[in-house]
Amino acid sequence: MKKKHWVKRNGCLIKIQDPIKDPEAKELFKQIISGVEHMHKQGIVHRDLKLENIVAQNNADGRISKLKIIDFGFSEQFSDARPFVTGSGGAIAYLAPEVIERKPYQYLPEPVDVWACGVILFIIKYGRFPFYGKNHKEISLKIQKEDPHFPPEAYEYDRHQRPSQLKPVAHLINSMLHKEVEKRITIDQIHKHEWMQ
Q1: What is the pLDDT of residue 3?
Q2: Average pLDDT of the segment spanning 75-79
Q3: pLDDT average, residue stretch 155-178
Q4: pLDDT in tens, 35-59
Q5: What is the CATH number of the domain that holds 187?
């Protein structure tokens, strides 16, 4: 059963029930990741990135023309002198494993937002969350212990109809949802990724 996800368009909430196809998905995601990059360059980590915190303006034809990131209630400043952030906040389904584990209690800010962007892109492309469960505890455990649950359309198939490798967008998502912070893709690397070209 597909869950309904929400995003704001012209100030009104709308449902995302079906995946958004390229090139629209790519254009939307480029706007999101550029907005996050801008925040990080200003020394701000959002810590509550989710579809509900993205507002969209539409063209006359109803297509999304511009995205804005809102709700900075959990945001925190960082700098070279203060390179770590502490505490937790945000919606459980978008939290990075290091925030859930709270080990160490201080963590690097940028990878937390990259993780949330990976969840957002997963929802945009596949119409559901990469980790799901019956309650917060179950979702938390899956985020900490399991790989993202990609649907069949995320894979390339060999001549025997066996999954052989992830398609470029799924590869990007998987790189954003890497559990090890040091191995998680950076925003600069996201911009250079094959799918973003």
Answers
A1: 47
A2: 90
A3: 92
A4: 999 999 999 999 999 988 988 877 7
A5: 1.10.510.10
Active site residues: 48
Q: How far apart are CA 37 and CA 114, in angstroms?
A: 10
45 contacts: CB under 8 Å, gap ≥ 6 = 39, 75, 76, 77, 78, 85, 109, 110, 112, 113
User: Scanning the structure block, which residue is given the tokens 């550029």?
Assistant: 34
Are the beta carbons of 67 and 124 closer than 8 angstroms?
no
What CA–CA distance (Å, rounded) separates 77 from 193?
28
Residue 104 vs residues 56, 88, 90, 115, 127: alpha-carbon distances, Å: 36, 12, 18, 17, 32
| 57 backbone dihedrals φ, ψ, rounded to 5° | -105, 140
Average pLDDT value for residue range 5-22? 60
Which positions ≥6 away from 102 have C-beta within 8 Å?
88
Q: What is the SS3 assignment for 115?
A: helix
pLDDT at 1: 38
Can you point out the beta strands (E) in the chain? 5-9, 12-16, 44-45, 54-58, 64-69, 76-77, 85-86, 106-107, 155-157, 163-166
What domain count does the chain have? 1
Q: For residue 61, give its domain range.
A: 5-196
pLDDT (tens digit, 9 = 90+) per residue, 99-114?
998 765 678 899 999 9
